[in-house]
């Protein structure tokens, strides 16, 4: 099985970016924890971060050809703006879990709406870096049942 994790803009700064909101865990820490968990299950996990909307769209499109089974996505600020990235996920029809480190519902009103949630398998927010691991744990047995 294959899982792609997509991280949107400014998530490359995790660890130092507004740590009171986003925590002190870096993206590299998140990726290595997820990667070792996935490897133990024989799952290939790839992680891609970009500050550019079009690059995230290109990566989502490429995932279909690569046979990616599931996507874990934190679209970051594009959560609240990007019809284009939403459409890309719909176009490839790869099921996805949406993750946010912070609880977007307790923050500014413009963060309350997501262009991704209504099409997601599920949405995790407010659990910090653990949210990514929770998404992975949710997907691993599904990969076992449906693919391997
Ligand atoms: C975020 C929440 C978004 O509102 C924000 O723009 C981000 C990160 C989160 O993980 O909590 O960049 O997606």
UniProtKB/TrEMBL annotation:
Keywords noted in UniProt: Amino-acid biosynthesis, Aromatic amino acid biosynthesis, Lyase, Membrane, Transmembrane, Transmembrane helix
Organism name: Azoarcus indigens
N-terminal signal peptide: none
Site label Transition state stabilizer, positions: 17
Its EC number(s): 4.2.1.10
Pfam families: DHquinase_II (PF01220)
Single GO biological process annotation from the record: amino acid biosynthetic process
CDD domains, A to Z: DHQase_II
Name of the featured protein: 3-dehydroquinate dehydratase
UniProt xrefs under NCBIfam families: aroQ (TIGR01088), PRK05395.1-1 (NF003804), PRK05395.1-2 (NF003805), PRK05395.1-3 (NF003806), PRK05395.1-4 (NF003807)
GO molecular function terms attached to this record: 3-dehydroquinate dehydratase activity
Family statement: Belongs to the type-II 3-dehydroquinase family.
């Amino acid at each position: 099985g294959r899982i792609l994790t997509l991280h949107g803009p400014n998530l490359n700064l995790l660890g130092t970016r507004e740590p009171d909101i986003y925590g002190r865990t870096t993206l590299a820490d998140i990726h290595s924890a997820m990667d070792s968990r996935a490897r133990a299950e024989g799952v290939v996990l790839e992680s891609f971060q970009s500050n550019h909307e079009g690059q995230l769209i290109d990566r989502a499109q490429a995932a279909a050809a690569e046979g990616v089974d599931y996507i874990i996505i934190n679209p970051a600020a594009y959560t609240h703006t990007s019809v284009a990235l939403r459409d890309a996920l719909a176009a490839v029809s790869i099921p996805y879990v949406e993750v946010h480190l912070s609880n977007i519902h307790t923050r500014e009103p413009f963060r309350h709406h997501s262009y991704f949630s209504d099409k997601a398998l599920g949405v995790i927010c407010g659990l910090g870096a653990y949210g990514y691991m929770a998404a992975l744990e949710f997907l691993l047995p599904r990969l076992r049942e449906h693919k391997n």
